[in-house]
Design brief:
Enolase-like, domain 1; four-stranded antiparallel β-sheet; homodimer; TIM Barrel; alpha/beta
């Protein structure tokens, strides 16, 4: 079948707050091929992503993404890889945003292909089984340590055996404050639960500042210390990995291609590699990193803070890897992301989740329910309308 | 003084060809502060860059670039660094295009500051002298080896003692064809001139394919072998650097932040690091890489394929480094780039060029001459016009 259309939709909450919560808007991509429809979300500033779709060509290495996608054959997984490679080849210089936009479109291609063939994406990737993963509740730190503790208590009551706190005030005030948050989190969830701490890149490239938190992280028996640095600061990860006390490092959500994720493993010596299929170029790239991580004895974890469709697409890449058995589970998404899908990936009686055993990504977009979030975008160049929001 | 306005202009040739020639359009940035005006060019898909300027906020890590620039104080070089850091902090997740857009704006801030203080940018960076550089003519391979040879002969006649061929058919047909091009280039310019070969990322991440060209490159006494791989494929550079025969490697034009350039030095073991100030985040970042390269005994070279203003802005970062004495000199820019400035950086009687000893970037934008290239861009979101092309 041939890709007949790709439609991009900017969805957003009525009010977007200036906080570290990526669930406040979405760039939703719809791919249609021979009557089959697939959906995917790009982790991408929506208007900038739309511009990457239709921006006029600058030269042979700076084509709009549309040039490499529309009209292409889509019959099996190798076509998706081929189309992704075309985008990289045709848009690699001067159009960095294309890496994020294609992530959403690539996912939609997998969803479309899986639905047309009536198999889950993880089966198309070659996995025999969708292995259960322990979902961890991913939440923001409270403004105070007391608030953080309350949140931890709530999550424990909700049944979570693993919880990650991140962003908020961490790293922005004093070492003492950070330590108080870490210990409050541990106190709130109890000694047996898994606790992870996400520094949200706050220390940029200061190994000294990041290392000061290691004793408290160790004392609180934290499973991993996530993104102390800028996602590109790979050598700083490598340096911190040699510090004592030893705390496992995690990172990778900022990787917008597989090279960066592999470098974070090889040179940054992370113990957990966290990949967002909506950022790294799609499910194919995420799968490539998952396989590479396995070959290096690094645990693969999805990065997902938003919707259930984003969760499913990020689960596909490592669905069959039994050893990589932890999954980030978005706990506080805004209503937009709650309304985005008809169904959810439910936590089973054993407290585990799985990539769905249904065609494509296995969750249904709630088209009627999200119309109220749709934002019109119009881009005109030289008097010609290159993009106008299509009908949802 | 305070940044009163930032204006973005999309300039382009009447016809944009699907070839590896980045001089066919430009995203020109104008910064105005207290009556002083500075200009800079971003190596950036113009419409996508404009979108990065005004795209509505998605969350605290995904602000439009305008939020971090407009109204900021601009009194000395530390302000430029501060503003750049603000952009990174506020736009780092989901808005990759911001790295390229801020490059042009950052250059314009330096130009504006230099003009207001009546000193060249290289002096603001702390250099005492603008050292002479040997300009190399940077041209595309011919379609055939005979054409490549003719081009080389012409460049030699024009007085160039160094020449680089790149892109075109290199790497796209056979090893024999590539060897023919390499030897034709050497024959055309004679035995004494410097010859460089730019593979234009054509081998992606295949060390085997890239290595097959090493014997011919060695036999033709090539000074460097540039960008055999995708700019992100750092470990592949590292692997190729160990192959025999030893040919010096060059790369870095794809670095959109200093981390990547440093990794190409540390892990990729390049011998020449090539930085475009209009890509890496501006002159401040380029300077940081130049200093790092010096500390690692790596030669710093500008990457410039377009205008004389781009050349000047890329020269500033290493103007005072006497050891890094080679400069890429655009030889075949389209008329847009020729018309972009009133003056040029002339090759002196010794065949050398210097960063100008004049305020700011030291070349003047030809405002009247480029109006004919201006392309209107309009971006509307939710019915509100967020961007309309300003008056040039």
């Amino acid at each position: 079948m041939k890709i007949d259309s790709v439609d991009l939709f900017y969805l957003r909450m009525p009010v977007v707050e200036d906080i570290g919560d990526g669930s406040q808007d979405s760039l939703l991509c719809r791919v249609t091929a021979n009557g089959h429809v697939g959906w995917g979300e790009a982790v991408c500033s929506p208007t900038a992503g739309i511009a990457a779709w239709i921006t006029p060509m600058s030269h042979s290495g700076c084509h709009p993404v549309i040039d490499s996608v529309l009209g292409q054959e889509l019959n099996d997984p190798s076509d998706i890889k081929r189309i992704y490679n075309l985008v990289r080849k045709n848009s690699f210089y001067g159009l960095l945003q294309s890496d994020l936009l294609i992530s959403g479109i690539e996912i939609a291609m997998w969803d479309c292909l899986g639905r047309s063939l009536e198999v889950p994406i993880w089966q198309l990737l070659g996995y025999k089984k969708s292995e259960p993963k322990l979902p961890y509740a991913s939440v923001l730190f409270g403004d105070t340590a007391a608030e953080t503790k309350n949140k931890a208590v709530e999550m424990k009551k909700a049944g979570f055996r693993a919880i990650k706190f991140g962003w908020g005030p961490f790293g922005t005030t004093t070492l003492g404050d950070d330590e108080a948050h870490i210990f409050a989190a541990r106190e709130g969830i109890g000694q047996d639960a898994m606790l992870m701490i996400d520094a949200g890149t706050v220390f940029k490239d200061s190994v000294t500042d990041a290392a000061k938190r290691l004793p408290a992280l160790k004392a609180a028996n934290v499973l991993w210390y996530e993104e102390p640095f800028d996602g590109y600061a790979i050598s700083n990860y490598g340096e911190l990995s040699t510090h004592k006390p030893k705390v496992s490092l995690a990172g990778g959500e900022g990787a917008h291609n597989p090279y960066q994720a592999k470098q974070l493993i090889d040179y940054g010596h992370v113990d957990f590699i966290q990949i967002d299929a909506g950022y790294i170029g799609g499910i194919g790239n995420a799968y490539e990193v998952a396989q590479y991580a396995r070959s290096k004895n690094v645990k693969y974890v999805n990065h997902t803070f938003t919707s259930q469709s984003a969760l499913s697409s990020s689960l596909q890449a490592y669905a069959g890897l039994a050893d990589s058995n932890i999954s980030e589970y978005p706990m506080e998404p805004k209503m937009l992301c709650q309304d985005l899908t008809v169904d959810r990936i439910e936590v089973d009686k054993d407290g585990m989740i799985c990539a769905p055993d249904k065609p494509g990504m296995g969750v249904e977009i709630n088209v009627a329910g999200i119309k109220k979030y749709l934002v019109d975008v119009e881009i005109k160049v030289a008097g010609k309308t290159l993009f106008a929001t299509p009908t949802l």
